[in-house]
Amino acid sequence: MTPVLYYPGASRAYDYSSRYQGDMIKPNCGIIHTTEGTSLPSYGQGAEAPNITAKPNFAKKRLDFYQHYAFNRSARALVNAPGGVETNTLNCIQIELVGTCDPRHAKTWNGAKAGEDYIYWPDAPDWALDGLAAFMAWQYKNNGIPLTGPSTWLPYPSSYGATKARMSFAAWNNFTGWCGHAHVPENHHGDPGDLDFARLLSLAKAKAKVTGGTSGSSGSGNTGGKPKPMPPFPGRSYFGPGKSNAHITLLGKQLVKKGFGKHYTSGPGPKWSEADRLNLRDFQRSREELRGDADGLPGPLTWRLLFS
Known about the structure:
Elements: E1 29-34, E2 52-57, E3 62-67, E4 92-97, E5 108-109, E6 112-113, H1 126-143, H2 169-173, E7 177-180, H3 197-208, H4 246-257, H5 274-286, H6 300-307
Parallel strand pairs: 1-4, 1-7, 2-4
Antiparallel strand pairs: 2-3, 5-6
C-alpha cells in the first residue's frame, strides 16, 4: 500500500523536511503524544518533531493540524536508545496533541482554564476527541493503520517510566494500531495519560465505517471486538524472494482458506515462492482497496483484509 503523504487541510508552515529528511517508512502504527504546553512547540526547529501536531482552536471548536514530516518519513519525537529496538523508524507515524495529561492542570494552569484556554486530554471536550478520531479514521482508510490499541492507558504520573503498560521489545516489534508515548519501549514519558481511548476508537470506527473489532494490536491488551484476533503483521521484510519463516506459511494457509491458492502445486510452506506472490496478487486484485498496489507482497492493509 502506497502511503498518502499529507493530511488534507493541514498547514505546512512548519514543515521541517528540508532540515531532517528522515527514513522511509510504511506506516502501520500511530503514536499519540501530548506537548505538555498550550502553544505550538518549536521542536528545536524539527529536531524533536512528530509527523503532525494538532492544536485546539477554541473559537471554532476544532483541531488545527500542522504537518512537519510526510507520513512516509520517520519523525523524531521518540527516544531511540542504542542497542535496543528501533522506535522512530519502526513504521510509526506520530501525532502531538497541544495540551496536557498532567492532573495538576486538570482544571486550571497558570490562570488559564481547561476546556476554554487549553485541553486536559484525559477529559477532552467532545469536539477535540472527534477531531482526533477523524484523523485516525483517515489514517485507517488511507494508510492502513488499524483502529486497535492497548486497553491499558495509565493516568499520569503513574504512566511514567517502566510500567505494566510499557511494551516489551518483542511486543513493540509486532505492534500495529495506535498507542501512546507511554507504551513505547526505551522511552520514559507517560503521555498522553489516561486518554479515553475506548471512546476514541469507537468514534474513529464510526467515521471509518468499521464494524466490529479491527484486531491486530499487541502489547498491553486490545480494545477490538470479540472475534478471534488476527495475527499481527510482522512487516514486509519477512516476505519476498529468499525469505523463509513461519509468517510465510501462515500467509499461504490463509490464502488457501480464502480461495486464492490455485498457483500452489504443493504446500504452502515457509519458503517464499512465486506461487505465494501470484496467489497474493490475485487476492489484492480482488479487493478494490488494493488494486492500485497489487504487487504480490503484503502490507498492513493487505494483511488486515486477508485475515479479516
